[in-house]
Specification:
heterodimer, A: 418 residues, alpha+beta, 12-stranded mixed sheet, 14 helices, elongated, B: 240 residues, alpha/beta, Rossmann fold, 6-stranded mixed sheet, 10 strands, binds adenosine-5'-triphosphate, binds magnesium ion
């Protein structure tokens, strides 16, 4: 049995020996510090990616399928997609007329750099979307003010426009936009609505858009080299399989693809993003775990070594303690707690250093490299506990053998040691 | 002529104890055949030339070491039957060690050094402090409780060590050449302290090879080559 009085004594002892030589303590726990830092870094990256993924899924909608010439995830096969035939407006419209299981389906097309003019200011940083009134029924078109354009406005090619949040803010600031008229490519358009802010740090671009009826879009812009997208809302994530199947079949019929040949279009949905992030996650995890294990091995060796040194240095002390009545378990515990404390301090050091480092990185880097916008400024607190738990585990493992040696020292031999 | 195996009130009762050390192929007989009884409030000096087995005997008496053969009963309990934990408990509660080289923890104050045995017997921190302070006062070091060993003289260090041996109120105090590292004057002061402790009822076993030191004891045992050469009352005990 171990006495309470001994535990406080061990605590005092351990602090004393850790801080009697802080440089040595630091150096010997360096491996553990690095290992823990890897774990924290990994967690931080994965956490950032999860946030992006979640944001993206919310933004797009889990029950949305986009039929497009390009795949969202096949960046490396860009050349292949480039060679596909464009999806024409007529194909897109035919698809939307014939699809049955989906709740809504509509064509959508985009053009960057259209010239916007309000009063004497011009803007050209916004993406112009041409679509159908049905777009107003998707979560992407939740209104802040006014309404989305109506079927009749699309049919009659009315010059109406809906602004996404940033477009509204940039042009109008705080003032009322609905009812005002702006010029797009020189034509007057009446603003009928403003969409709520949807973007997050990384997904900011979704707020830099404007929407006009596709009928108007087609008249204003040359569509000969444009591929249209088809947005399909399944209505219920459970019906995705059915919708996907019908959409694919229908599109193959419309595009005249003989049986046995591959699709010449892509079905994009949030699930494909998830699976591509999953691969990335595996890479990060795999590399991270590899390095982590490696540095923990080095770390454990470092701690074992320093603990053996510590036991040897304190042989006489161990003899004295035994002579006045310390039991084996007390000596064992003393050294295990010491190595655990060494590792725990290492974990705390790495958590603090990583916190500062990541805060700085996440505050500055995305400004330079926007695609790093997913990095979060804060490490989840749960990682503090994971890191601590891990370091305690490592400390016990690394401290056990040296501690056992200390506990089994013969008191007479130990007392004679100089 | 066999002496009864019962202890007859002896604290320590040993019979035919031997201790062998194997040094490669050679066997060293540190103790060959030692028997003795030690009774409460005895003041015993163990003498003998270097290598005669004094320290070995002392370590066995103090349960730091176990004999190779022979019987050892401590207060009626068979030491040979005890586990490591039992031995640690006896060292903690029943025995107070005083060493030639003091053997204090260098980084701890006098008070912490004296408290240490109480830590291992589970005394609460306030009791510990009180008892350690009182014991330090008893050995004349009431004004040195926050000093560390390197801030004390040799004699003061040995007093701290004695206080540490006394603090658990042990049945027996074992001192292996306690004056060996001290000058004559300081040594005499320490001997005076032992004398006082004996007069207060403590049982003391002292190892020395100096006749002057042994003179203080009531009984003297002389060892030679691991055997008891002489065991008897000291007719010239110095009683001052
Ligand atoms: N651990 C050991 N291994 C081998 N031999 C030992 C060991 N301890 C003691 N001895 C031997 O046992 C014998 C007795 O040693 P011990 O230390 O008991 O003598 P001592 O009477 O205390 O001598 P001194 O007066 O020099 O302290 C010596 O010959 C010594 O070499
Ligand atoms: Mg000796």
């Amino acid at each position: 049995m171990i006495k309470i009085s001994e535990i406080t004594e061990v605590g005092r002892q351990v602090l004393e020996s850790l801080f009697s030589n802080p440089l040595r303590s630091f150096l010997s726990s360096l491996g553990v510090i690095i290992g823990i830092s890897f774990v924290i870094t990994m967690g931080w990256l994965l956490d950032g990616m999860n946030n992006v993924l979640e944001d993206t899924i919310n933004l797009i909608g889990e029950d949305m399928i986009y039929i497009e010439k390009f795949s969202w995830t096949g960046g490396h096969q860009w050349k292949l997609y480039e060679q596909r035939k464009d999806i024409t407006y007529d194909q897109a419209m035919e698809f939307c007329r014939r699809i049955k299981v989906a709740q809504i389906a509509m064509p959508i097309t985009r053009k960057g750099g259209a010239k916007l003019k309000y009063q004497s200011n011009t803007y050209n940083g916004f993406l112009t979307n041409g679509t159908k009134s049905e777009y107003g029924l998707t979560p992407a078109a939740t209104m802040l003010d006014g309404r989305f354009f109506l079927p009749i406005e699309d049919l009659s090619s009315a010059r109406v426009v809906v602004l996404a949040y940033n477009a509204y803010k940039t042009i109008f600031g705080e003032t009322e936009a609905v009812g005002k008229t702006i010029k797009i490519q020189g034509y007057d358009f009446r603003i009928v609505g403003v969409i709520k802010k949807r973007g997050t740090a990384m997904m900011d671009f979704v707020d830099n858009q404007i929407f006009i009826p596709i009928s108007v879009f087609n008249k204003m812009f040359d569509n000969s080299h444009r591929s249209f997208s088809i947005a399909i809302k399944a209505g219920n994530p459970k019906e995705m399989d059915e919708v996907r199947e019908e959409a694919q079949g229908l599109m193959r019929i419309i595009r005249n693809i003989p049986p046995g040949k591959e699709d010449d279009f892509s079905l994009n949905e949030t699930k494909t993003l998830e699976s591509s992030i999953e691969t990335f996650r595996l890479y990060v995890g795999g590399i991270g775990i590899g390095f982590t294990v490696l540095s923990f091995i080095v770390g454990i060796i470092g701690i074992v070594n320093i603990m053996f040194v510590s036991v040897t240095e304190r042989t006489k002390e161990i003899g004295i303690r035994k002579a006045i009545g310390a039991k084996k378990i007390s000596i064992l515990l003393q050294f295990i707690i010491e190595s655990t404390a060494l590792c725990l301090v290492g974990a705390i050091v790495s958590y603090i250093v990583c916190s500062i480092l990541f805060f700085v990185v996440a505050s500055t880097l995305p400004g330079l490299v926007p695609s790093l916008g997913f990095l979060s400024k804060f490490i989840p607190v749960s990682f503090f506990f994971i890191a601590s738990g891990l370091s305690i585990f490592v400390g016990i493992i690394a401290g056990f053998i040296p501690a056992l040696r200390a506990a089994n020292l013969d008191p007479v031999d130990a007392l004679r040691y100089d | 002529m066999r002496i009864s195996e019962s202890n007859n009130g002896a604290i320590i009762h040993i019979r035919n104890i031997a201790k062998l050390y194997k040094m490669g192929t050679e066997i060293v007989h540190a103790l060959r055949d030692v028997s003795l009884d030690i009774f409460p409030n005895e003041y015993l000096a163990i003498m003998g030339p270097s290598g005669s087995g004094k320290s070995t005997l002392m370590n066995i008496l103090g349960c730091l070491d176990t004999p190779t053969t022979g019987i050892y009963n401590f207060k009626g309990d068979d030491v040979n039957e005890m586990t490591d934990n039992d031995l640690a408990k006896i060292r903690n509660k029943e025995i107070g060690f005083v060493f030639q080289t003091f053997n204090l923890l260098a980084r701890a104050t006098s008070l912490k050094n004296v408290e240490l045995p109480l830590v291992y017997s589970g005394v609460s921190s306030s009791d510990r402090r009180e008892r350690a302070e009182q014991t330090l006062k008893d050995v004349g070091l009431g004004d040195r409780i926050t000093h560390k060993p390197n801030e004390l003289s040799g004699g003061q260090r040995q007093r701290v060590a004695i206080a540490r041996a006394l603090v658990t109120s042990p049945s027996i105090i074992l001192a292996d050449e306690p004056t060996g590292n001290l000058d004559t004057k300081t040594g005499e002061d320490i001997m005076k302290l032992f004398k006082d402790l004996w007069k207060k009822g403590n049982t003391i076993i002292l190892v020395t090879h100096e006749e002057d030191i042994a003179r203080h004891a009531q009984r003297i045992i002389r060892l030679r080559d691991g055997l008891v050469e002489h065991d008897g009352v000291n007719p010239n005990q110095l009683l001052v």
